[in-house]
Design a protein that fits this description.
The chain is of the alpha/beta class and 250 residues long. The chain has helices spanning 54-61, 84-94, 110-120, 127-136, 152-164, 182-199, 210-213, 236-244, and strands spanning 10-21, 28-39, 43-47, 69-74, 77-78, 95-98, 170-174, 203-206, 218-223, 226-232. The protein has a single domain (40-62, 82-244), classed as P-loop containing nucleotide triphosphate hydrolases (Rossmann fold), CATH 3.40.50. It is built from 8 helices and 10 strands. The chain binds adenosine-5'-triphosphate (ATP).
Length: 250
Amino acid sequence: MTTTTTGTRTAARVVDAVKVYGAGDTAVRALDGVSVTFPAARFTAVMGPSGSGKSTLLHCAAGLDTLTRGAAWIGDTELGGLDDRRLTLLRRDRVGFVFQAYNLVPTLTVAENITLPLHLAGDGGDPEWIDTLIDVVGLRDRLRHRPAELSGGQRQRVAVARAFAGRPDVVFADEPTGNLDSRSGEEVLGLLGNAVRQTGRTVVMVTHDPVAAAHADEVVFLADGRLVDRMEVPTADAVLDRMKAFEVPS
Ligand SMILES: Nc1ncnc2c1ncn2[C@@H]1O[C@H](COP(=O)(O)OP(=O)(O)OP(=O)(O)O)[C@@H](O)[C@H]1O
C-alpha cells in the first residue's frame, strides 16, 4: 500500500518500529513502537529531545540500520524483505542522504561530487535535472573547484545537490545545518525547501533546532522513542513551545 487515508502518496514510512541496541541489562530501547508516514513531495522535520530516537528513526527508515521489530518501507518496498545486495541498490538508487559532515570526496571537483552517485550506478543521470540542481544550489561558478576551496555552506550545498542527483524517492537529512553558521544554515534549509516545493521531491530531516524545523511543511515529535505529536505549518516559536513541554519542570 502506498497511499495514506487522505490519498497522499507516501514516500517512506515505519510501522510499529522497535529498535533495541545491545542486550540484557545494558539494552537501550531507542524506538518503542513508532508508526509514522512521510508523505511524498513534502518536507518533514523530526524533532525531539536528545536521545529521543531521531537519528535511529532516520537510519532505520532509510535502510542504513535495521529494526528489531516492525517494518520500514520506501514507497511500496519493505526494507526487511531485502537481502544486503538489494538494500544497497535501494539506498543507491532510491534514497539520498545529507549528513552533518558533508562527506564530499576531496580529490573530486564540485561537478564530479554531485554526479558521483550516478557514475557509481553506471548511469550518466539526466543532464537537464543536474543542470537545474546546480542552479537550485547556486554553484554554477564553483563547478571546477574542489571541496577544500569552498566554505562550509557551499560544501553542504554540494552535498544537497548530490543527494538529489539521482532523483531519489526521498532524501534523508540528519542535522544538515549542524556545522553551519546561521546564515549558511538558512541557505541550506531554503534549498531543501525549494527542492521540495519547486521540484516535488521529498525530504525527511532530523534537527534539534526549532528555526530549522520551521522550514519544513510538517514537524513530527519524538520523545522516549515514541511519536508524541505532529505539527502542520510549523513556526519556530510554536516548535520551541512544544519542545519546552518535554522539559521536566525543576
Ligand atoms: N549504536 C548504539 N548503541 C547503543 N545505544 C545507542 C546507539 N545509537 C543510539 N543509541 C541510544 O539510543 C537512544 C536514541 O539515540 P538517537 O541517536 O537515535 O537519539 P537522537 O534523538 O538522535 O539524539 P541526539 O539529538 O542527541 O542526536 C539514545 O539513548 C542513545 O544513547
